[in-house]
Specification:
Blueprint (H helix, E strand, L loop, with lengths): L1 H33 L10 E4 L8 E4 L1 E2 L2 E2 L7 E7 L6 E11 L2 H7 L8 H7 L28 H6 L11
């Protein structure tokens, strides 16, 4: 009887924690989106000033057919490119860019980080003064998630792969 009650309390605690976190996180996201806040990286709006004007205007960026002016969840595949020539060196699988960094991160997944060849392709573009020895994440350690689970799916589960409770 005691063990059943304790397991029930632990289950309720897990659910309450997940619900509380989700509510708080969702409130912050919706507040940011509904106020159309300009982010510091300028990934949602481009600022411009007309010649002779003292006013600054903002034009929403578009990702594919999606405008940041109408949706905060617009995304496109992340790529590493030369800004000046437009040469694309690498598309990063599972990683997205979009209007807000948090929104694109939540829609991204970690598949590249479970693939050694993807990491090897990405590594030369990372700012580092010395070569790093980076190994792919171990797929065999996954229990609840898969390598292409979105960050949102993991956040919904508080990024907890397994719960261990000893009674």
């Amino acid at each position: 009887m005691f063990q059943v009650q304790t397991e029930s309390l632990i289950s309720d605690l897990r659910q309450t924690m997940a619900n509380d976190f989700t509510l708080s996180f969702s409130t912050i996201r919706k507040t940011t989106q509904s106020n159309a806040l300009l982010n510091g990286q300028l990934t949602n709006y481009a600022l411009y000033q007309l010649s002779g004007s003292i006013y600054t205007n903002a034009a929403p960026y578009e990702y594919g057919d999606c405008s940041c002016g109408s949706s905060a969840t617009c995304i496109s595949q992340s790529k590493i490119m030369d800004y000046y020539s437009g040469t694309i060196y690498l598309y990063v699988p599972g990683i997205y860019i979009g209007c807000y960094i948090i929104e694109s991160l939540l829609q991204s997944d970690l598949r590249c980080f479970y693939n050694q060849s993807c990491i090897d392709e990405l590594q030369p573009f990372l700012a580092s003064f010395s070569q790093m020895n980076v190994s792919a994440l171990d797929k065999s350690l996954l229990v609840r998630f898969v390598e292409n689970s979105t960050v949102q799916e993991m956040m919904d589960e508080l990024m907890i792969e397994t719960w261990n409770s000893s009674i």
